[in-house]
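Q: Here's a chain of 408 amino acids. Please give me its 3D structure as tokens.
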Amino acid sequence: MPLIGQVGRKQTRVLIGITLIYAMLMIGGITMVVPFLITLSSAITNELDYERYQPFPRYLSDKSERYLKYLAEKYTPSRFEHFKAAYQCPEYWGSFRDITFEKDVINKFFPLYNCENDPSKLARLTRIAEDYNTFITRHYTSRALTEQLMPLFLNYNLPSYRDFLQNRYEQLYTESNTNNTRATGRPLELKALELMGRLRGDTYDSFFSMNFGTVANYPYDLPKWIPAQTTRHLDFIDWMRQLPANHKLPVTRHYLWTRFLLNKGWDSKKYKEVTGQTIASIYALNYPANTNTPTALSALRDEFESKYWPSRFVALKEDMRDKYLLFLQTRYPSLESFNKITGMSLTDWSQIPYSSAMPYPDDNVRAHEIKTAFADALCSAWRDYTETVPLSLKTMLSPEQVYQDFLL
């Protein structure tokens, strides 16, 4: 039986009351649905739009927003400085979120957007992309060269990284622990996790709970930094070797140069004060490789090449075996101490291996079989020796120069 009779419903004030009741119920429903929609849409945001809290994300109806969101997913927060160098972005951008506050940002900073509407431009960019993919695939094949790359799309590629490790250690367990009765009856995944824990020191309940950890935040721009040749690092490098070419990015000379300038207190304003020339951003400043360079910038370039260029990107122009051996004899008190530190068993100093570039473990040796302390000792010795070599006798192994040679 209704609370309000049929006759009473016809009165104006009753109709108004009923209308108010339904309005309040609708408002209450909205206050419940909108937070739910915001929670749902926040689950599929990234660095670009995480703090917007919108029930209906803008990228669902805005193509340019999807493009920016794609870039944010490609470079992720740990690759933001590389993104700024690649796209010559303003220095004041501190995160992908700052991009959304810029007016007409697509036309200002992203000229490749919408290139599919220009057939000639699209054909040219397609050819450039094909050349680049071929270059990455052909050149960066070894572990030593892959050290010069870093992966992109970290969030997207994390499942691939987990699958790679699971397949590697399950296969390794199957090969070497088939008679291990202690783990009988346990799932193969748990056996592989236990093996990985012994070899790498990792403690995970499952491969699904793994993440990149410290390898995602390597300090690529530190001049003396050398990645420790641990099993964990070599697993990471081997995984990166099988990534598609467009999911990897070289640590470019342009990026290292701009980071050096910023650390020296240079920006577009400082550049204009010193040179009298105007640039949109310090990230838009090309590397001064020619002689027509302002004096102040030329001095900075020389300092950068001699003191701040990473040792792992250096090659010696001449055969300096004798000087290298002399350096090692000064560094180590005896050949016995050198053998103890490097794990070698040499009987004469002349037997020490020499290379024109930084020595890295052989590609044919499995990651867990490499003795980390020994490999790191050889890399550190070579790095410290190159710091004593004059700049004129060293070659800077910049990806830009290697790519130019490849195109030629």
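Q: Can you summarize the key feature?
A: The chain has a mean pLDDT of 88.
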